[in-house]
Amino acid sequence: MSTARRPRVLVARAVFAEVLARLRGYFEVEANEADEVWPQPELIRRLQGCAGCFITGSERIDATLLDACPELRAACNMAVGYNNVDLAACTARGVLVSNTPDVLTETTADFGFALMMATARRIAEGERFLRAGRWTKWSYDMLAGSDVHGATLGILGMGRIGQAIARRGALGFRMPVIYHNRSRLDAALERQLGARYVGKDELLRGSDHLVLVLPYSAESHHAIGAAELALMKPSATLTNIARGGIVDDAALATALRERRIAAAGLDVFENEPQLHPALLELPNVVLLPHIGSATEATRRRMVGIAVDNLIAALTGGTPPTPVNPQVLPLRP
Ligand code: DGY
Fold first, then answer.
1. Which atom of ligand 1 is nearest to the CA of 302?
2. Would you say residue 2 has pLDDT above 70?
3. Structure confidence by residue, pLDDT tens digits, 204-240
4. If you measure from the C-alpha of residue 81 to the centroid of ligand 1, how many angstroms do you get, rounded to a whole number?
5. Distance from Cα 137 to the centre of ligand 1, integer Å
């Protein structure tokens, strides 16, 4: 492709160096090697004249931005979730949105299971206790948590990652698995996963360890609030690897402080990277900085798919994982 005619793209966050080199084979690339999280006006300024962008969950693509960047034709998100993008606004303007499904399923399920186990067995709390020099003697009930094997695993949201967590629980840890989802899985898949469909209240009441794996949307906002937490067992744990905003963090902090549930493991937060201050004061919550898919191999695969989408979208190819394929082929 000749340099003069090459489209311009913005890579809105730092990425592996070879990825920029690959993109430079097709496009004029503006990168963000300093890895700043640009406020919206700065993102809009940087997007002027760009036909496409590589974004992460930190960048918000909304109607205001789209109207201010009329040349934009593709927004390729390095995440499976795309609640940072106003999909309807993009589709209405013929802007392709893509995400990175599948490549992170098993990695994120490993992480969700690990976080649930760390929460149940008080792993982080134990390490803080030891590092603080408080381990002076062994005692019979020191840091006693709850069993994972054989306990009832509850899953809210039974997409690819939820199913991968169900498999780990049922096949690896002999856990009875119950789940709730917008749509029920077919009977053969339920049998294969060892999972039983229940209503949401039954899920809340019956789970020993409840894991949230549903997408964020207006409907799932505060799907777990004070009323839902009140239905859970006092011995139960709650793990959120989905999105901040699905849990009402203030209500959760209150439930944890009053021991209305035993413990929580959180990888995502309302207003992240800011945390609700009450969560930081509590011993019975494991707090992690949104790292569910963070293995090097998986992050490379996620970046690779986002870039495959960007290249295909702007060169007349077939993007591998479009979210709104109805906008294809893109306007010139
Ligand atoms: C995802 O892929 O949605 C992860 O949460 C990373 O943002």
1. 2
2. no
3. 999 999 999 999 999 999 999 999 999 999 999 999 9
4. 5
5. 42
